[in-house]
């Protein structure tokens, strides 16, 4: 199984953003996790479509936009236009989840659904065929620096079983508190796409730090 590492832009030093993007590319990583927060669904505010549009010319990294916002349908077309390749919405934030996923797909983008720690997998029962990825939150969303809830490995395992039994094509992504000590346990549970936040970015050492993560998952 090939495991993808996605550094989370929210954890980067904004004062050295162009430098950090170059460090990510130099490490051999090809994808970037872009957290969008509205101050309502989660307590923080981050990365509007204008900021994503400004970032787009700076890097060839694939933009995976994680929308932690209420009623994401309002903004999905703008993030698609800004340069997102993947758009992930929270099941808890969507009034009509199936319709929201149809909207993302109609714009030519890959579609994902994120589930908070307390949200069961069965909310996805009738949308699996529309999904390119499922994001299992391993912390409660919106704040960096939290510890991974390792009890959620059972949720990841169950999702992997559902995927294999039905031959679905979606990727299993995880996000929250991932570090060098717990990453392999989560991969063993079935995670295929790993979002790395605070553990990824170290001023002047981001490239070597990410190379260490890449080596761990080979």
Automatic annotation (TrEMBL):
Enzyme's top EC category: isomerase
GO BP field: pentose catabolic process; pentose-phosphate shunt
Record-listed a divalent metal cation binding positions: 33, 35, 66, 175
Keywords: Carbohydrate metabolism, Cobalt, Isomerase, Manganese, Metal-binding, Zinc
Pfam families (UniProt xref): Ribul_P_3_epim
Binding site for substrate: 8, 66, 142-145, 175-177
Family: Belongs to the ribulose-phosphate 3-epimerase family.
PANTHER family documented for this protein: RIBULOSE-5-PHOSPHATE-3-EPIMERASE
Protein name per Swiss-Prot or TrEMBL: Ribulose-phosphate 3-epimerase
Organism: Propionispora vibrioides
